[in-house]
Amino acid sequence: MLSIDFKNTFKVAKQHGLAQKDLQASKKDLQNLLSDVHSRNQNFYSIVDDTDELKRIAEVASHYKDILHVVVCGIGGSALGTICLQRSLQHLFQEQRKSKKVPQLYILDNIDPTMMVEILDVIDLPKTLFLIVSKSGTTPEPISQYMYFKNLIKKAKLNPEKHILFITDPEKGVLREIHEREGIPMVPHGPVGGRFSVLSSVGLTPATFAGMDTKSLLKGARDMRDLFLSTDAKKNLPFQLARAQYLLEKKGKTINVMMPYAQKLAFMADWYRQLLAESIGKEKTRSGKMVNVGITPVKALGTTDQHSQAQLYNEGPKDKLIMVLAVKNLHKTVPIPMLHKELPELQYMKGASFNKLIDVERIATCNAYTKYDVPNLTIHIDTVDAYHVGALFMLFEASIAFLGEFYNIDAFNQPGVELAKNLTRKNLSRA
Amino acid sequence: MLSIDFKNTFKVAKQHGLAQKDLQASKKDLQNLLSDVHSRNQNFYSIVDDTDELKRIAEVASHYKDILHVVVCGIGGSALGTICLQRSLQHLFQEQRKSKKVPQLYILDNIDPTMMVEILDVIDLPKTLFLIVSKSGTTPEPISQYMYFKNLIKKAKLNPEKHILFITDPEKGVLREIHEREGIPMVPHGPVGGRFSVLSSVGLTPATFAGMDTKSLLKGARDMRDLFLSTDAKKNLPFQLARAQYLLEKKGKTINVMMPYAQKLAFMADWYRQLLAESIGKEKTRSGKMVNVGITPVKALGTTDQHSQAQLYNEGPKDKLIMVLAVKNLHKTVPIPMLHKELPELQYMKGASFNKLIDVERIATCNAYTKYDVPNLTIHIDTVDAYHVGALFMLFEASIAFLGEFYNIDAFNQPGVELAKNLTRKNLSRA
């Protein structure tokens, strides 16, 4: 279902690459490593076993049969996973399609006032459900959006209980209080927040509204989770990936470029940007030693960014690991008709298809990286579907847990964002 | 119209920041620098004086009154500028708006076969114009797309001359040959290609079809060009910006994050990624010395990425300069209604607006960067309109020309992408 080809990391000059033994580990070592990971956080991978969650969400969703628009109000981890699901699993031009069988998802992960006004030009309030996602219930973006839309709902003499649905902590918090007091329904937020939440109600609820195959999504994640729990390093893909990232970072590859060769996977790279940046960018180790570690994630897209970024990757500083995502069956064959037999410059495309062209460009680009001593690896999946997207989510989440161990940092907190949050609170109330 | 606030680069610890004198230069020095820049390339800034171009394009566009969809087939510099124009100057949800006064732009900057098939579900072929953009006429992506769509046009018994328009080199190349032989119309490609082409026919033609204010776009660019030609360093914003980027790169800030606080400017960062990466990522100096220089551009968006990237920027390695784009008037005031006077946790939002909230978050986030010794500067514009977008394009293009001089590299070539292109050609014809 999913494999990783590390070959080009072995082929580049030694100081820029890896040796095969770098990705190996004894059963004993992997056992110890896994037991450390378990002691930090088991929720992020055990949630995929909770298949009852899907039934609970389906039950809630069944109450909103007439809805045409679902507006997700969330930011960061409450939005990026859902955006990735939307872009990976729906039609590329879903918004423009005339007849739709599922409600249109809009994900408002910003508070630009222009966005707050222009969204009203395209949604039909009586047919819209607002999904407010915040674990704590105090994140300024979704909460301000909630008050804004609720005000409009009330002005239109509609019932907020029918048009607003919370995803929030079932134990505490502001949104839970409002839910109890005013009867606005809620789906419980799972035990993992933010960047690890896509496989919980945070991602599964909008995915259910959009009619996605959430069962296969969790199945793909579970199958990868099983590899992650294996003490056989050959099978443990998250271990191998994390090991490669870590050892190459030690060799100066402080930037990881994720470059899918599939239009629908473009937003996987956006989701991953948060996961890697926020989990591994840390000032201190667990024991309080100042280290300022971190790997900077960069999003790229093939073939598009070959015409934009490849010049830098090849000739610039040797500070990058390129992680390509390749898809075996993007689509059934779409031939490129050779309409100009008279033009010798175009004959290299004779008999080609778009499928072949994107593949050949990908392989050529990776071979060029290798020639330039830029380490690159390729993650292969069979097709862009719910199963493989679930597997990718778990591959990356689990590899992050290993990275946390290698760096001896807490991969699950984010102390560095508190200062700006406090300043916002202080300055807004003063303004 | 546009100003740059460097204050926070002066406030951070000395080893991570700048001194005010770093951005100064004598009239003489600037004169020499400008004369070096002129000797490399004058086209990129002189094209904005060619206001007859707009008349020529308007004349061509007037032949396509019934068109509802304009599909731009181009990649890299032939797409990124147009995407930025589309996202900056059109409604945020233009695709979903019911009544449109202008044709819908689709920009196909990839060759994923899924995209090539799914686009057909949303365009109406008899009402569609395909704009094929390639200076050389041999770029595989637009050329394969051209043959694919032309084949469909012919199968539908439509006339290719009415549904295809080339933007290509008026002197030579494959598309020009086809234009002459088959009468498919063409708009001449300007003298600057790729990443410097947005202010030429490459960007102006789709902008004209989409009814954008191209006059103001060029006016903004011209006004900035005049600052760029000034030998007074205080006025020369492109000089100051380039100087800051260069000196901070020498202090280890090898990553430049462009972070607009405006949903509509998100794609300015994508356009800039190509400009910076491809221009400055170079293996050799002009005299052939091996240097492997480059600055890695990273796209971020405020407030969205505060919840995703800020942890890394603050606590991770000190390898970044953050370049914020701030907009004075994003929209007329959109108040946040305080619907929950009973909840003390939300009272900090009392009396606030989305305008205020995004501003306060931006300033708080920049102040946090500064506290963490992460150098950051803010480019202020009045509003997101054609004039200011034109000024931003020219600010960045001109600063790149200066960067080329500081590094003594050719900022206008891209030798590092040839290898993959050759491998593609070879392997495709062999396949």
TrEMBL record, chains A, B:
Which pathway does this chain act in? Carbohydrate degradation; glycolysis; D-glyceraldehyde 3-phosphate and glycerone phosphate from D-glucose: step 2/4; Carbohydrate biosynthesis; gluconeogenesis
Q: Tell me where in or outside the cell this protein is found.
A: Cytoplasm
Q: What Gene3D superfamilies does this protein map onto?
A: Glucose-6-phosphate isomerase like protein, domain 1
A molecular-function term among this protein's GO annotations: glucose-6-phosphate isomerase activity
What EC number(s) would the UniProt record show?
A: 5.3.1.9
Gene Ontology BP terms: gluconeogenesis; glucose 6-phosphate metabolic process; glycolytic process
**Highest taxon listed in the record's lineage:** Bacteria
Q: Which residues form the active site?
A: E278, H307, K421
Keywords, A to Z? Cytoplasm, Gluconeogenesis, Glycolysis, Isomerase
What PROSITE patterns does its record include? Answer: P_GLUCOSE_ISOMERASE_3
Briefly, what is this protein's role?
Answer: Catalyzes the reversible isomerization of glucose-6-phosphate to fructose-6-phosphate.
Name recorded for this polypeptide:
Glucose-6-phosphate isomerase
Taxonomic source organism: Candidatus Magasanikbacteria bacterium CG11_big_fil_rev_8_21_14_0_20_39_34
Q: Its gene?
A: pgi
